[in-house]
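Standup notes, structure subgroup. Blocker cleared on the DLL input:
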Amino acid sequence: MFNKDMEAMPLGKRKELQLERLRWSLRHAYENVPYYRKQFDSAGFHPDLLRSLADMQRVPFLTKQAMRDNYPFGLFAVPQKKVVRVHSSSGTTGNATVVGYTKNDIEVFSEVVARCLVCYGASDEDVIQVAYGYGLFTGGLGLHYGAEKLGALTIPISGGNTDRQLMVMKDFGTTMLACTPSYALNIADYIEKKRPDFDIRQTKLKAGIFGAEPWSDALRKEIEQRLHIDAYDIYGLSEVIGPGVSAECSAKNGLHVFEDHFYVEIIDPDTGEVLPEGERGEIVYTSLTKEAFPVVRYRSRDITRLYHDNCSCGRTLVKMEKVTGRSDDMLIIRGVNVFPSQIETILMEVEGTEPHYQIVLDRQGALDDIEVLVEVNEKIFSDEIKMLSQLSKKIGDRIRSVLGISAKITLVEPMTIARSEGKAKRVIDKRQMK
Ligand code: DLL
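Run returned:
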């Protein structure tokens, strides 16, 4: 562990620490950000009223909309001269949100990412190729500072230019690759189709640090087999800090949340009620140590559940289940709730398909239509038409029996669905364009 005192702290002691830090964080927000003061006052809440963790339920939520309304720096809690960096999340819907960091916040950000890397077995002997985008996105610089903090050799290559990625991987002796899972898949495809001379097994690559978008366990297996690595999940969001909110450990079942910096709750997304441990709902974050941009009960829209399982890695930190989707990515198709990752899991189980797909939603009259475009492998595509129609029937049947919806399946030629170097765009919603 990078910080055993914090990561393996007894549960009772951690709760005390959280309460003490919550008191500081809530007061910090209340005293320095007019938005929080107004919200707390009108809800009849004052930071002094926080006597136990359960009292958090009385604190009003922070929404993405409030962040947008205070664009760009309205929620900063320190004078601008104390802010040393900003990042911004472009978001799939609406305006960007801007987040700020003091020197100390950057320290915390670097440490939590370093902790993640240790979760994946990294040390200062490792060579980490950071192929997340550098810039306003938190992925590149986040991984970069964390890798340096650990003392690893850090390669700031950023995303794209796959030929150069491969050259660097081989020549610099990369042991860990950090990028989105969709870019990792893109690299695997590229090697197979364009660089058959490149033997990934001849490189030192042993692990992948993948996140920034939902990805299924089936996709994990596929990437692991094709790149001959262990693939680990890293999760985070700009509003809370960036990557490093939670990480998978060697057990690869659930991500440990760094609870000494982030207080987490699960709520029912419809009623806002806090749900008991183990139940699935929307995860809500309160920062415990952030100075420049504190967040108090931020509604992330990410759907997961929290649990303790006496993890074999020795960390006592609560675990969150792999995030399979966001409540605003959830597709409601003729009344049925569907996450793109559920469709991904089905596609990955059907032989002959490639893990590249796109979901197109449209509306005919009052009814929603869903079409799933999916690439098939070369062999099947060059086979007879009969094979193709059997395959699309098989996929359609599976989707109907697992998800209860009927979808139009369109099989497309290999390499026709746009590849991504960052976050993949899985859903095209034509209903919103009408
Ligand atoms: O994506 C931070 C990040 C960078 C995480 C690099 C991991 C690696 P945002 O651009 O603000 O920040 O997007 C945050 O992406 O609320 C989730 O919906 C989604 N997300 C991030 N990591 C995962 C993951 C970065 N491992 C939003 N699994 C979050 C599923 C993820 N979804």
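Discussed briefly. Residues 30 and 37 are 5 Å apart (CA to CA).
Next: hand off to the docking folks.
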